[in-house]
Write a structure and sequence with these properties.
The chain contains 4 helices and 2 strands; from the N terminus they run ααααββ. It is mainly alpha-helical and 160 residues long.
Length: 160
Amino acid sequence: MPKLPPPFPAKQPVAVNALCNKRAEITGLIAMHEREVDRLRAELVHVDATMRLFDPGTDPAAIEPLRRFPRRIKYFARGEVTKRVYDALRDAPAIRAQELADQAMRDKGMPETDRAQRREFVNRFLNVMGDMKRRGKLAKIGRRPGVRWRIAAREPGLGL
């Protein structure tokens, strides 16, 4: 009687072993981060209790968390966001971050219906333009949600 081939390719046990190792690594990272989250929540309880000691009327839950943004995201090369801002301001006297984000998404072939990605792009442009404002390069026109940006006047008396 001829010998039948094994039901799985010979390399599968190696692949399964590699996947088991990867799964163990991921579950270990999850456990580590869960412990870190638990530790941070405990610290938060202590900070809230201390705040209430100093001011019993304080509502710690009403305090908005600080949002942290990565230095760069994979969609933009170094300096690309700043370059896009300056390029757009050459064509128009004032721009909105939403317009820049929409154009960037079109340029990169991304669906404009991806709300999370659009929000990330808008926030990236707002962060860069806010930094440019702090450095005196841009001026802000208006307030949220329709804030627009323009090139800042080089001298205080100029209305540019």
